[in-house]
Amino acid sequence: MGNKMLIFDKVTSSLLEVMPYQYVGKDINVCIETEEFTCLCPWTGLPDFAYIVINYTPDKNVVELKSLKMYLQSYRMVGMVHESVINSILGDLVKVIEPKEMSLDIEFGIRGGITTTVSAQYFKK
Question: Which of 41, 59, 92, 105 is labelled catalytic?
Fold first, then answer.
């Protein structure tokens, strides 16, 4: 068939790619949402499902969406607590995109009767 399925066992930030923002100086909001995020609970090994919302104001770059999808999939087999997930994603995106500002909200699915939502922001100095 020729299709090779990628299996990740670590977060792979090198998958992230950017494209030049063609309207430098014109502030816009880019909103990216996905319900297809999973990582593993570091204690049970069970999957944690999450809904992610990324909002950012580009400076000179925007994220290429296929690379973002592949990057987010690299979390699939990684055991990580929710607070670490959000800081990891925000840090990697800020490093690659270098936005003017970015906010990230992750709503993790119910587990044991508890839902967790974590939020983080970045503002360029």
Answer: 41
Instruction: Spell out where the chain has E strands.
Output: 18-20, 30-40, 47-57, 61-63, 101-111, 114-123
Q: 56, 109, 103, 58: which is closest to 82 by C-alpha?
A: 109
Claim: this prediction has a pTM higher than 0.85: yes
Residues 92, 54, 65, 72: is their CA dihedral positive or negative? positive
Does residue 31 have an active-site annotation? no
41 catalytic, yes or no? yes
Distance CA 94, CA 123 (A): 10
How far is Cα 76 from Cα 37, in angstroms, rounded to an integer?
7
Determine how many CB atoms are found less than 10 A away from the CB of residue 86.
21
Per the residue annotation, which of 27, 31, 48, 59 is the catalytic one?
Answer: 48
Q: Which of 37-41, 56-60, 109-113, 121-125 bottoms out in mean pLDDT, i.e. has the lowest? A: 109-113
Instruction: Give the pLDDT confidence of 8-41 residue by residue, as tens digits.
Output: 678 999 999 999 999 999 999 999 999 999 999 9
